Amino acid sequence: MRAFSIFSLPDTLAHSQRLQRRHMLARLGLAWLAMMQVMMFAFPGYLRNRPMGAEDQSFLDSAIVLMNWVSLALTLPVVLYCAWPVWQGAAHRMRQASISMDVPVALGIVAAFIPSTYATYAGHGEVYFDSVTMFVAFLLTARYLELCARQAVGSGRMHEAIEAHRIVLSSRADRVAIWFTIIQLAVAFAAGAVWYMHAPERAVGIMVAMLVISCPCAMAMAVPTAIAAAHASLMARPSTSEHELAGLVRASERIARQSLLGAMLWHVLMMPLAAIGWVQPWLAAITMLLSSLAVAANAWRLFRRQTATSAAALPVAGQRPLSVDRP
Amino acid sequence: MEAMFLLIAISLVFVVAIGVAFWWAIFAGQFDESDSAAKSILGDEENE
After folding, report:
1. Section A293-308 average pLDDT
2. Which of A213, A230, A277, B43 is geometrically suited to a Cys-Cys bond with A252, CB 3.0 to 4.6 A?
3. What is the distance between the alpha carbons of residues A193 and A203, in angstroms, rounded to a whole number?
4. Is pLDDT of A232 > 60?
5. Per-block average pLDDT, block size 10, for chain B (48 residues)?
6. A-chain residues within 8 Å CB-CB of B4?
């Protein structure tokens, strides 16, 4: 059994795919860097509603305006450069008049970024730059994991069998995810409209949180990570029989379904909480990352279980080549 | 307030510098092979 990591580059990767991965990593890393800075600059904004003297208040307000401008300067490259694949994907989909994961993400970024920019320019009002950068950084983290999982595919007949299975599974999962997303977007806009009528100052924050939650990151990761775990288990023990392969495929399907259900449950739980205004946009972004990581962890569990059983069987399997090789 | 202006400017310079260094490292291939260094110790190529 050899160690296997989805983060090590497969030798067979084409140059363009290598380049794609580098770009993805650059976008991811820069988004995280900007996120950490913007979160720090956002801190004074959270102190605004504390009781304090008039002098302190005016000092704090001028500090907040300054911090907002700096945050805007840092968020702009995140929105333009790091989130570039999102714009590209959303524009591509819009032209085909269909919807994909990129559309709710793009809506979420626009809905948070434009009002924040206006509030910065006007010098008063809430800004959500920290939520925007967090959203982009966490989303790119999930996408990077997914890309690594997709690229870590071995070659051979059995890997192709798993790939064929992946196509069936992912088309089914995508259909579910798209309908689920459309419904959530509709709910988000409806809730935003209701809040706009009753408490306009909270409408933007609530709609941003709901759009962040409606991003089907974890759902989109369910199938690729489960399939990647199946490929990885296969690579860890090359001497897999047809029977074991069938078991592996079944297990990966079960894990994918589990992850998909778990992710849907997360959406169903979070949406009402966000609709009544209990979930801040930054909190929504954090739970989005957690749900994506939970899906990845679930797939990793499959890999662990598969390789644990093969490790127990290893002495038997390893005996034969050893006695042949011995001079 | 003046100290804060200075500190914010410094932090921005740091962010840009770290970002540029990170960018360079990625496109110089620093993160392409995460396991080759660990494997190299197992190799026997003394004359390399």
Report:
1. 88
2. A230
3. 7
4. yes
5. 85 93 90 74 66
6. 63, 66
Residue to mutate among B31, B34, B39, B42, with most A CBs inside 10 A, is B31
Identify residue A206 by its one-letter amino acid code. I
Kindly state the tokens that stand for A162: 């798993």
**Measured between alpha carbons, how far is A157 from A167 in angstroms, rounded to an integer?**
16
Distances (CA, A) of A10 to A119, A148, A233, A266, B34: 47, 10, 15, 33, 11
pTM over 0.90: no
Contact yes or no for A73 and B12 at CB 8 A: yes
Q: Which of B5, B15, B34 sits opposite A8 (nearest CB)?
A: B34
Nearest chain A Cα distance for residue B13, angstroms: 12
| CA angle (A264 as vertex; A259, A268 as ends), nearest 5 | 150
Q: Which residues of B touch A5 (CB under 8 A)?
A: 34-35
Look at residue A190 in the predicted model and tell me its pLDDT: 93
Q: How many CB pairs under 8 A join A and B?
A: 49
What is the token pair recorded at A63? 């500090």
| Mean predicted confidence (pLDDT) in A284-295 | 91
CA distance A273 to A18: 41
Tell me the H-state helices in chain A.
15-46, 54-77, 84-95, 102-122, 129-151, 157-198, 200-214, 217-236, 242-275, 281-325
Give which of B12, B26, B34, B36 to mutate to test A binding, by max A Cβ within 10 Å.
Answer: B26
| pLDDT value at A290 more than 90 | yes
> How many residues can be counted in chain A?
327
